[in-house]
Fold this sequence. Notes:
Layout: E1 3-8, E2 11-16, H1 27-42, E3 48-53, E4 57-59, H2 68-72, H3 79-95, E5 101-105, E6 108-110, H4 112-119, E7 122-126, E8 131-132, H5 146-154, H6 156-165, H7 171-177, E9 182-184, H8 189-201, H9 205-218, H10 223-238, H11 241-251
Parallel strand pairs: 2-3, 3-5, 4-6, 5-7, 6-8, 7-9
Antiparallel strand pairs: 1-2
Helix pairs in contact: 1-3, 3-4, 4-5, 5-6, 9-10
Amino acid sequence: MTLSVDRRGGATWLTIDRPEALNALDGPTKEALVEALREAAEDPGVRAVALTGAGRAFCVGQDLRELEQGYREGRAPDFAAELERHYAPICKLLAGMPKPTVAVVNGVAAGAGVSLALACDLRLASDGARWRLAFSGIALVPDAGSTWHLPRVVGLSRAMEIALLGDWVDADQALQFGLVNRVWPAEDLPGEAEAAVAALAAGPTLAFARTKTLLRDHLGTDLAGALAGEAEAQVASGQTKDHLEGVTAFLEKRPPTFQGA
Ligand code: LHQ
């Protein structure tokens, strides 16, 4: 298997496990990712999803060797089918996941690997992780949702810089750009990320899901529309068991125990 799927507490950890190819995405890995993300989305017992890579890389994007034969024979690749079959579903499943998603960026991220990290809600990284969009190096446009996510995450000017200049972005720059949320020394990343993901998995899952939808949708909504969206989501949130527990816990001066319901 090139994707390991571990349930730890209320979280599903997906580890791309092709360290010899720096976790490049070949067909079976992409199929497994689609399947695992679908299951995580549908399983109410899963309350957070973490995506990481085995070995020294997070993910270096499309497995270029998989396409080698066609290129050597001078055939243009069928990107339409590939994007529709794998990359679009993976991107939509990550971005639309009704629970928090975290990219735990343990090492190099390139090409569609950057796109996957961008489609997650949060990016927690090691100080050794470096980033390169890499598409321009092979005369392609950024894909797998990165033209949508990147300017939203870092702003248009930085997005242009990352996409057009194509330099490596190191951990300090990634923090400065807002590309990552937190950076830790490599040896501390596993423990820190585990704790952060566990805390998210113990959170008010339904409120988190609605918060994600509101923040994503309201980037393209006017204020009146946003206020209406918030009101609708708040009415529903106010009727959850977790809301009752949260307020009761506050009144009783104890930490809340959320069930994700
Ligand atoms: C790889 C790859 C790789 C296969 C390293 N594939 N094996 C395109 C098409 C369709 C739809 C979706 O989107 C895309 C966009 C993409 O994602 S295109 C791919 C974009 N990624 C890249 O261009 C990154 C290519 N890799 C590199 O530039 C280097 O490997 C970096 C700078 C990441 C790391 O360099 P090194 O630390 O020197 O490691 P290495 O180059 O020796 O790589 C280790 C192995 O991993 C090596 O295999 P080998 O059998 O020779 O030891 C590489 O061939 C393999 N590998 N990237 N994308």
